[in-house]
Amino acid sequence: MTPAAPSQARARLDAIVKAYDVRGIVGEGLTEQSVEALGAGFVDEVGAAGGTVVVGHDMRDSSPGFAAAFARGATRRGADVVAIGLCSTDESYFASGSMDAPAAMFTASHNPAAYNGIKFSRAGAQGISLDTGLAAIRDRAGDYLDEGITDAATPGTISTADVLADYAAYLRSLVDLSGIRPLKIVVDAGNGMGGLTVPAVLGEAAGLPALPLEIVPLYFELDGTFPNHEANPLEPANLVDLQRAVVEHGADLGLAFDGDADRCFVVDEQGGAVNPSAVAAIVALREISRVRAAGEDDISVIHNLITSRFVPETIEEAGATAVRTRVGHSLIKDRMKETGAVFGGEHSAHYYFRDFWGADNGMLAAMHLLAEFGAQEAPLSELAARYTPYALSGEINSVVDDVPAAYTRIVEAFTGRADFDELDGLTVTGITPESEPFWWFNVRPSNTEPLLRLNVEGADAATMAAVRDEVLGLIRA
C-alpha cells in the first residue's frame, strides 16, 4: 500500500483532533499509524520520557489495537506504559490521579460503533484541550507521520495493572452507602463499561461488602457494536428500555450510563427522567455540607451556564460561591483547579469532584444521589421535584448554515426586552419585572457540525414554551 502524502496524513489528523479529545471514524482519520504517532507526540508534550504513562480502553472492537499502537509510540519515545486494559473513563482518571501519571483512554464515549477516540490527561487527571497541549500533541504527531518516529536512546517498557478493585474501594471511601434504606435499582449499562464498573462499585464483584442495593441489570454484556441501543442516555429514545424496566420491576429508580460510563442519567420510580441540574443541586448541597463540617468556610461550586437557574440559587443559599463557566470538559477541569471548587456540575450529566482530582465521575454522582435518596422515605419523583422548580426545554439542535445571520435575527428580536451575554455562544436573559415570570435561553454553535444548540428555561412551562417557540422560529427562519 502506497503511504499517504504528508499533507493528506496531516489533514486526516487535523480532522480527528477536536477541542477536548480525539474522535473519528475507525479506518479513516483514526488508524493505528496515526495513533502510534499520537502516542509519541503525547509523551513529548507532557514530558513523560523516563516516566509512566497510563493507557486504558473501552469495549469497542478497535480499542485494544489502538491502545497497543499508542503504547508502541509512547515506549519508542521513552515512556514506561502501564496498560490497565478494559476500564471506564473515570477509572482511567483514577489511575492517572492515584499514580500521578499522564493517561490516555481509548473511547468514543456515546458515539456509534464506527467511531473511536482518545481522552488525554496530564498527571493527576488534569485535562488537556487544544489550548493547553492538544494542538501541540497533534502537531508533533503530524511531524512523526511525515518523517517517522525517532526512537529514544532508552526505550520504555510495557507492564499491566488491574485498578478496578482500588477504584471501587476509593469511591466507597468517598460516599458511604452502607446505612441507607434498601433500594431496588435498574441499571442500563448500554453494553458499555458500566457493565464492568457497576458490579464492582455497587456490588460485590471487586470483593467489597454488600450494600443494601438490589441491582437489576440491563445490557451489562460488554459489546462495542451496541446491539440494543446507542450508549447515549442524553437521547430520550435510549432511555425507553430503562424507563419501562423500572416500572415493570417496581424499582425505586433507574440509572443509565453512557458508553465509557463517565456520565450517569437518572429516572425516577415512575420512569420519569430526572434533570441533571437537579442531580447537580443535590450533590452540590452534600459536598458543601461535608466540607463545611470539616471546617472550610470559603467554598466554591462550579456550574456551567446551561444548568438550571436553581443550581446557582441552591449554591448561594447554602452560603457557598457559585462559579459560572462555559461548557466544556477540559475547561471545567481547569476551573476546578484554579478555584479549588469542591464540586462542578454540567447540564450534560458530567459531574466533577475535587476529591477525584477535579475530574468527572458519573458513578460518584450516582452514589451521592443514592445516599441522599436512601436517607429519606419519599419517592424519587418527589425528591427530584423539590430540585426542579423551573421548566427547562432540554437541548434542541437545529441545522443552521449561517450562524451569524441567526444570531442577528435573535438580537434584533430581543433587543430592548433582554440582556445579552457572550460568555459561551449567546445567552439572552429577559428583562422582566418581579411580578412577571423570568426566562433565559442560550444558543451555541456545535464545534463539529452545522448545528445551533438551544437551551431554554422559564419560571413555568408556559413561559418556557413561548420563548422556545419564538427562538426556534428565528433560528430556523
Automatic annotation (TrEMBL):
Residue stretches making up the Alpha-D-phosphohexomutase C-terminal domain: 395-472
Domain of life according to the entry: Bacteria
Keyword Magnesium applies: yes
A Pfam family this chain is assigned to: PGM_PMM_II
GO biological process, one term: carbohydrate metabolic process
Gene3D superfamilies to which the protein is assigned, alphabetical: Alpha-D-Glucose-1,6-Bisphosphate, subunit A, domain 3 (3.40.120.10), Alpha-D-phosphohexomutase, C-terminal domain (3.30.310.50)
Single Gene Ontology MF annotation: intramolecular phosphotransferase activity
InterPro entries registered for this protein in UniProt: A-D-PHexomutase_a/b/a-I, A-D-PHexomutase_a/b/a-I/II/III, A-D-PHexomutase_a/b/a-II, A-D-PHexomutase_a/b/a-III, A-D-PHexomutase_C, A-D-PHexomutase_C_sf, Alpha-D-phosphohexomutase_SF
Essential cofactor(s): Mg(2+)
Residue ranges constituting the Alpha-D-phosphohexomutase alpha/beta/alpha domain according to the UniProt record: 16-131, 166-271, 279-390
Keyword entries, A-Z: Isomerase, Magnesium, Metal-binding, Phosphoprotein
Protein family: Belongs to the phosphohexose mutase family.
Listed name of the protein: Phosphomannomutase
Taxonomic lineage from the root: Bacteria, Bacillati, Actinomycetota, Actinomycetes, Micrococcales
